[in-house]
Amino acid sequence: MPKTIPIVSTAECEAPSTGYLRKISNTLFAALQAHAWKCRGKKVVVTNGVFDILHVGHIKFLEAAKAGGDYLIVGINSDRAVSILKGPNRPINKQGDRMAVIAALESVDLVVLVDSVRVHDFIEAIQPTIWAKGGYTDSTLDKGEVEAARRVKAEIALLKLVEGVSTTNVINAIRQPEGRSTQQRSRRK
């Protein structure tokens, strides 16, 4: 039987150099890139989170974080870390998908997977100019993460979130749309 050779276009063989894929990185490369940016006098902002179901609150938060500096590096919590933080039913979207969605945003320059629940090692590796967090106060920030930010002399920026907008609210709305009880939905099935 003759051997079949798949036909592949030259575009499929080239390394991705444009689009969101070029923004997905690892901690080592992101740290080297952040250092290069800072050497050129640029401000590097770092933030982190789950970013499970993208909503307007995420968009506005990331745009506000980026507005504080020149470059924005986003740490995405791994699936394992999200399950520890949010419970066994999360994340809804897998880590690769969450990274791709965040990388596709104009305000984001690099995306890195963070496999720990707390990001003090990530902060220390990147050594940002600014560490941005949304929805926290000085007293609710993780003390280890604050100490890491102080060790690398990063400014801590506490940003406001969009009121009433959260992934949990989106999940709850999907599970129980307004005006329809669980009993009404089960009768239709």
Short description:
The chain has 189 residues and is an alpha/beta fold. It is 41% helix and 16% strand. It has helices spanning 10-13, 27-39, 56-67, 79-86, 95-103, 120-126, 143-151, 167-175, 182-188, and strands at residues 24-25, 44-49, 71-77, 110-114, 130-134, 155-159.
The helix/strand order is HEHEHEHHEHEHEHH
What is the H level of CATH, i.e. the homologous superfamily? HUPs
Tell me roughly what share of residues is in helical segments. 40-55%
Main sheet summary? 6 strands, parallel
Distance between the termini: 51 Å
pLDDT average, as an integer?
A: 88
Backbone shape: globular
The helix count comes to 9
What count of domains describes the coordinates?
1
Alpha-carbon Rg, integer: 20 Å
What do these coordinates show?
- With 189 residues, the chain is of the alpha/beta class.
- The chain has a single domain, classed as Rossmann fold (3-Layer(aba) Sandwich).
- It has helices spanning 10-13, 27-39, 56-67, 79-86, 95-103, 120-126, 143-151, 167-175, 182-188; strands at residues 24-25, 44-49, 71-77, 110-114, 130-134, 155-159.
- The chain has a 6-stranded parallel beta sheet with strand order 1-4-3-2-5-6, sandwiched between helices.
- Helix 6 (120-126) packs parallel to helix 7.
- The longest helix has 13 residues, at 27-39.
- It is globular, with a radius of gyration of 20 Å.
- It starts with 9 loop residues before the first helix and ends with a helix.
